[in-house]
Every structure is written in C-alpha cells, then in structure tokens.
C-alpha cells in the first residue's frame, strides 16, 4: 500500500511538470526541431521489411531467381546471341543483332571480301558462266549473312538463266522478306527487281496467279514501271487462257466419253462425228485421231483411216503408234498396196519387235503378194537420188522388205520403183500441216485454228 502511494505521487508530479512545459513556447519549438531532425535521419522501411513475417511457398518460389540450365547461345558477328532451339522460338533467322565494336570491325572486313566476290560474280554472269557466278554469290552471302539483299536477287538471276526456277523464286522471296523486315537496308529499286524476277520465274512454272501477284508487288514498289505493267497484263491473259483450257479439257473429256459409248454400241458414224468435235477443240490430241481412224476402218473409208492414222502417229504416244501402224497396214492391204502395208508393219516392229499381230501381218501380206504374182520391188542400186539413200538408211529390218511406198500425191516416182497413189483415188485433196496452223482432217467445215505462241519468251536478265 505504501509503494502504490509513492508511485501515484511521482506520476502526478510528472504530469504537472509536463503540462507546465507544454505551456512553455520554447519547449514546444525545441521538440518540433528535434522531431524534424529525426525524420531526416531515419531511413524509410524497405519492401522486405514491410513483407509479412510468413510467406506462402508459391510467393517464396516466385521471389527466388530462376534456376536451371542457361539458354543456348550462338556467336553472330562476334557477339553471343541467345537462341531457343530449333522449335522456331527466340531469334528469327532474319534478325540482324546489334554488334559490338569488334563485331563491327569483323563485319567491315567481311563486307569488303563480299564486295570483291560480288564483282567477280557479276563478271562471270556477263560472260554467261552462270554456275561460277552462283557459287561466288553464295560465298558472298555466307560472308555477309542477310545484310546485302542484292546478292540474293543476283543469284536468283543466275538460277533463272540455268532454268532452276524454284531456286530463283526462293531467293527472290528471301530478298523480299528481308527487305520488308529491314527496310533501312534496302531500297524500292531492289524490291522491284526481286518482285519482277519472281514473277518471271513463276510464269515459267505456269503459276500464273502467283506471277500476277508478284508483278502487282513490283508495281507497288515502282508504280511507273512499264515492264511490270506489261508483265502483269501478260500474266492476267495467261491466267484467263489457262481457265479456258481447263474448261475445254472438261468438254473434250465428256465428248470422248460419249464417242467411246457410240463406238461400243456399233454407231461408228456418230462416234466419228463426236471425235471430230473433240479435234476442233484440241487439234493435236493423238488419241482422238486414232479412235476416229478405227471408226473409218469400220465404215470402210480406208483413205480417211490412213490420214487419221498418220496424224495419230505424229501426235500420239508410243503405245498408240503401234496400233496406228497396224491400222495403216490393214488399210493399205484393203487398197491392194501390199508394199506399203509391209512397210507399215515394219515400222511397227521397230517399236515393238515381239508384237504377234505385226509379225503375222507381214506374213499374210507376203503370202498375198506371192498369190497375186506381184514381184518384189527391185533393190536399190547406185543412183544419184540422195533422198532415196537417206530413206534407205533410216529403215532396216531383219527380213527383206520392198522399198517404201509414200502416199503423198504429187510427188514424182523415183528410180527405185516407189509407187505413188494416183490423185483420183483420194476422196478429197490432201491437207497440209504447217507449224502454228492445222486443218481438221475429215471435217467438211475446214477451219484454220491458230495457236498462241509459247509464253514467256526467253530473256536475259540484268544484274545489280
């Protein structure tokens, strides 16, 4: 009880003294100054000090630095660059990393060597040594990496001259992609050339839609280019022709199917008419000539069969030619032209020596000639007919056959005894076939069909 009384007395005195000091202005000013000084010297609490005492495992893991194997790096132009593997992530192949001072010096040396190789490659290109030029361009590209886009366009020109159109397109696409990614390292003229060369290569590959897009890109880079405008129009026209050809091919397939059906049902006249319609649309379709020749054989119009068989031999495939020689030989036998029939069988045996029909045809034709007492043609002697000598060298058979019997009317007979069919035996005047123009044989409405020239024409590309 005594201790409690002593503490109460002391506390009362302290409160009284403090109240008196509070009423003293000098005391208040001193306290204020001391508080200001302590605020300046006291450091602010850090984020670590303000964190709670306990953290969850997830928070602790997130705050720790990542551990594990370091990302793979590769040295590019004297500088280590992070690469995240072959999955396509990380630095792309087209990126141009920032170089250190040593890397810049090394790159300058490589550029000097690359420029020298480029000059040598340009000289080889002008000398039309395209393989050597391509090798030098490739070495220059390896030295400079993706920093000189002209090397890609020049190498593309070399690929074009060698007919390697896919490689030409790939180099042009690389140049265009790099130019779009790093426009500060190229110019519109280089982009224009790359687009133009890409379009030319695509035209050779008959990819007309892609070529038209490439020419359109060239016009965007150089809108006043008359060459790009002309190429664009040509690609557009070729694309339209291709669409028409696809439509024509579909119609011809339907007509061929109908004609084959008529032939199978024995309607040979209707089948021949349908084959004629096919030939109006595709004058060089050998199989249509061959099938129409078969119709003429069934109808007994052997001269027409001879003409169609000749056209099929000219335009048809190897296996079709053997059948046409058989038809030609049978038609000549019906016309009593046994020597010509034996010749036709012999030409077929040159293609397929083991064909039993051809061998049997030669035997029957020879027996028919013996039965009719037709002597074989005299053998060739030394004469002044150089053309006959050339014809003799073209053909040789393991069995004796009479000389050729050309069927073209108007050709004078030779000293070797060749027989020429007289003009009155022809049912109609012969039809001359010249390059770029053809008349349909067997068609009453003889109409000339002109073929467009092949496109594009060969060209010599300029290099930078």
TrEMBL record:
Database matches in Gene3D superfamilies? Tetratricopeptide repeat domain
Annotated region Disordered: the residues are: 39-103, 371-464
Repeat region (TPR), residues? 322-355
Under the heading SMART domains, the entry gives: TPR
Q: Does the keyword GTP-binding apply?
A: no
Pro residues composition bias: residue spans = 399-412
Q: Where is coiled-coil annotated?
A: none
Composition-biased stretches, type Acidic residues, lie in: 382-392
Q: What GO molecular function terms would the record report?
A: Hsp90 protein binding
Q: Where is the signal peptide?
A: 1-18
Which controlled-vocabulary keywords does the entry list? Repeat, Signal, TPR repeat
By its UniProt entry, which PANTHER family does this protein fall under? STRESS-INDUCED-PHOSPHOPROTEIN 1, TPR REPEAT CONTAINING PROTEIN
Kindly provide the name given to this protein in its UniProt entry: DNA binding protein
Species this protein is from = Cymbomonas tetramitiformis
């Amino acid at each position: 009880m005594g201790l409690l009384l002593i503490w109460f007395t002391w506390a009362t005195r302290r409160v009284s003294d403090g109240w008196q000091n509070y009423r003293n202005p000098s005391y208040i000013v001193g306290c204020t100054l001391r508080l200001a000084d302590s605020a300046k010297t006291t450091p602010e609490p850090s984020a670590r000090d303000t964190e709670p005492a306990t953290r969850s495992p997830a928070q602790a893991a997130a705050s720790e630095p990542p551990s594990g194997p370091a990302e793979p790096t590769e040295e590019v132009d004297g500088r280590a660059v992070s690469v995240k593997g072959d999955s396509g992530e990380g630095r792309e192949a087209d990126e141009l990393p920032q170089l250190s001072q040593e890397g810049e010096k090394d790159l300058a040396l490589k550029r000097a060597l690359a420029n020298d190789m480029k000059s040598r490659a340009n000289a080889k290109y002008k000398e039309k040594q395209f393989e050597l030029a391509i090798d030098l361009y490739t070495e220059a590209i390896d030295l400079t990496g993706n920093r000189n886009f002209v090397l890609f366009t020049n190498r593309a020109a070399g690929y074009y001259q060698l007919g390697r159109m896919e490689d030409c397109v790939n180099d042009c696409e690389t140049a265009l992609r790099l130019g779009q990614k790093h426009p500060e390292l190229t110019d519109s003229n280089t982009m224009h050339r790359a687009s133009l060369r890409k379009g030319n290569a695509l035209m050779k590959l008959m990819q007309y839609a892609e070529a038209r897009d490439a020419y359109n890109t060239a016009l965007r880079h150089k809108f006043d280019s008359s060459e790009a405008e002309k190429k664009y129009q040509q690609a557009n026209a070729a694309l339209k022709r291709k669409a028409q050809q696809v439509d024509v091919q579909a119609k011809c397939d339907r007509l061929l199917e109908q004609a084959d059906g008529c032939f199978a049902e024995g309607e040979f006249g209707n089948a021949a008419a349908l084959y004629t319609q096919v030939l109006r649309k595709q004058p060089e379709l050998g199989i249509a000539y061959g099938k129409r020749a078969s119709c003429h054989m069934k109808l007994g119009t052997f001269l027409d069969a001879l003409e169609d068989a000749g056209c099929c031999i000219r335009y048809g495939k190897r296996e079709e030619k053997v059948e046409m020689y058989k038809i030609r030989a049978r038609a000549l036998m019906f016309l009593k032209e046994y020597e010509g029939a034996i010749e036709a069988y012999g030409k077929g045996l040159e293609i397929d020596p083991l064909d039993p029909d051809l061998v049997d045809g030669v035997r029957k034709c020879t027996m028919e000639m013996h039965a009719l007492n037709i002597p074989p043609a005299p053998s060739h002697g030394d004469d002044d007919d150089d053309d006959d000598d050339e014809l003799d060298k073209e053909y040789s058979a393991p069995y004796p056959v009479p000389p050729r019997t050309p069927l073209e009317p108007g050709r004078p007979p030779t000293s070797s005894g060749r027989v020429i069919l007289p003009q009155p035996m022809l049912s109609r005047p012969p039809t001359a076939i010249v390059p770029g123009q053809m008349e349909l044989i067997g068609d009453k409405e003889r109409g000339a069909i002109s073929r467009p020239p092949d496109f594009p024409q060969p060209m010599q590309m300029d290099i930078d």
